[in-house]
Structures are given as C-alpha cells and as structure tokens.
Design goal:
The protein is of the alpha+beta class. The chain has a domain of 100 residues: Gcn5-related N-acetyltransferase (GNAT) (Aminopeptidase). It has 4 helices and 7 strands; from the N terminus they run βααβββαβαββ. Strand 3 and strand 4 form a beta hairpin. It is an enzyme of class 2 (transferase). Keywords: Cytoplasm.
Length: 146
C-alpha cells in the first residue's frame, strides 16, 4: 500500500468511493477546492494501482478538523483507514497541528472503534448533525497528537 497526497488526477476514483460511502456526498468541485487549499491535507491510499481510500483535514492555529475518511467497499476491514489516519496525523504534526477533531455518525460503530484505537475520545454530541438520514454526530478529539 502506498499513501500519498491526493491530486486532481485522483478525483474520479475518489468521487466514486465518496458516492458509495455517503448518502450526501461531496461534489468533485468540493474536493478540488479542498486539495487546492494550502491549509488542508488530503491523502489517498493506493492498492494494486487503484485508490482504495482517502482522508483529509483542515488545519489552522494548531487545530485540525478531519473532514473526510472513506475506504472503498472492496477494501474495508484491511487496515487501510487506520494507515491513512496514522499518516494524516503525522502530516498534521509536521505542520504544527497539536490536536484533531472530527464528527462521526452515532451509528457508525466501526468508525468510532477506529478513532478510539487512534486515541480519539468522545467529547459531545451534535444533535441532528447529519442528514440523509437525520442522525446525531459524536464529536471526537485527539487533544495531543505529539
């Protein structure tokens, strides 16, 4: 597995994973804007020449906000999400980010387990944060990534 920065050439494959993973997916233009912003870190995982997953965060003033984490259906439960997030945390550290936060659907138990394994802790609830279907989000923080 190779993990590297996301590029515009990756967008078609990334968008396919986004559509299969989320009922309210980001647009291709949202990804273009995200990877064009110097405050963002976006990574892809390559397996056998194909994009297996991606993740990204925004960082400013020492804090990072993880926007996206997704692994293609055929690649789940193989440690790809874990590796992507490990590399994202390392990239965030190198940019001076000291803590990371994210929201996750309350029902997404595999993701919650993954984030806890990486040292994130539950810090609160955002009521009705998600749509399609409407659901609360759990706010999670990793307060010291160093």
């Amino acid at each position: 597995m190779l993990i590297r920065d996301m590029s515009k050439a990756d967008l078609e494959e990334v968008y396919q994973i986004e559509k299969e993973s989320f009922q309210d997916p980001w647009s291709k233009n949202s990804f273009i804007e995200a990877i064009s912003n110097k405050n963002n870190i976006y990574l892809v995982a390559i397996v056998d020449g194909l994009i297996a997953g991606y993740c990204g965060c925004y960082g400013v003033a020492g804090e990072g906000y993880i926007y996206n984490v997704a692994v293609g259906k055929n690649y789940r439960r193989q440690g790809i999400g874990f590796r992507l997030l490990q590399d994202l945390i390392e990239a965030a550290k190198s940019r001076g980010i000291e803590s990371l936060t994210l929201e996750v659907r309350k029902s997404n138990l595999p993701a919650i387990k993954l984030y806890k394994k990486l040292g994130f802790v539950e810090a609160g609830i955002r009521k009705d944060f998600y749509t399609k279907p409407l659901e609360d989000a759990i706010i999670m923080w990793k307060t010291s990534i160093h």
